[in-house]
Amino acid sequence: MDNNHTSSMPLARVPVCDREFNVLAYELIAGATPQPQSSSLSEVITAVLTDPRVKGLLNGKPALLLTKASVLAQLHQDLSFPLTDFWLMIAAEELHGLDLNLIKKLIKRGARFGIQLSQLPMPELDENWSNQIAFFRAPIKVLQGRLQVEVIAPHWLSIAHGIDDATLFNQLQQLDIKALQGRYLPRPEVAEIKRIPSNKLIALQILSLLGDVNVSLEELESLIVQDLQLYYKLLRFINSAYYNFNRKINSIKEALIYLGLNTLRSITLVIALAESTTRSPDLFYLALTRAKMCEHLAIASGWANESMYFNAGLISLLDVLLEIPMSMILSELPLSSAIKNAVLHFEGRTGAALQCAINYELVDWQKIEDSQFEKEIAHTAYLEASRWATALQQSLIAAVESQEC
What we know:
Layout: H1 3-8, E1 11-18, E2 23-30, H2 38-50, H3 52-56, E3 63-66, H4 69-78, E4 86-91, H5 100-108, E5 112-116, H6 127-130, E6 133-139, H7 146-152, E7 157-161, H8 166-174, E8 179-180, H9 198-210, H10 217-225, H11 228-238, H12 252-259, H13 261-276, H14 281-301, H15 306-315, H16 318-322, H17 326-332, H18 337-345, H19 348-361, H20 365-370, H21 375-401
Parallel strand pairs: 2-3, 3-4, 4-5, 5-6, 6-7, 7-8
Antiparallel strand pairs: 1-2, 1-8
């Protein structure tokens, strides 16, 4: 199969998270058809296993694919390799007439099998079927009461679909539902915090200086050496396999020669932020992807100062990562009006890039279609940003675990 063809297929991902927003799997959704036919489903599965850009969308997590019963039979016939990287799901109404032996064969090849329950009643399942099902996905209104507590929870993972606000998230916790999908992100309320904790205030001070595009090497170096932990982690990362230099870098000045000031500033910014968040690493990964996609869109559009676009993407999720209200963060950071207006109101070119990245996160195909960015440019930026964020996060983890600078 032609990987370039598959990469150009409009694919986006929706995370399946636990209640701490650790990603359990990513649902892959094709823009052309919400439920892929056998040929396109086979292409997606093959791409996940063979195309680095599509594989980068998953960040090492399984792919959840909503499909049809008829497609599963064709899939089993067409593809012979292991399916350990996949969660396969069909609608509850399609269970009738589905071959149980087919499902057993797919599970034997490593797949997890699940049911999408859009409305009641719950399908009747004998023991043989019950033993093959790993998860149920349903709107939270379907999972209310006895169904969740007595029927689903004791046997299967339940995924609440459409968790788009704090009210629904709170209901999910009360029902002891372990997984969710939706637009909700854990943003703090102003009333929840009166002043910024000292450890995060230091991080914001670092972000403040690094966000200045005119910062000099001397200022950057002076700031970094004040925090020895940041200094050593930065050097460990620069000397990691991510860059794979043929000599050891021993100082910030040497790093500048090999990386350039803009890259050095961005990497320091990322590591400083990673040091200051206690949230799920997958939320940090989301911020990295959003930031890099904004930067890619600026570069592809020929817009100057691409680091400003990267910073805007990162800053737009600081409230989630630092658990500090955005109003307090913006009051501490002397940001340009372009970044502030982009983060708060999606204004200007920076705001357009940020909105496009968020549209991909929400898999809003209509808004993606209506965006000022050409579809191929936007899709390439999305895939490359995800791939970059995956590689960067893995290298950061390896650098932290390494004891050698």
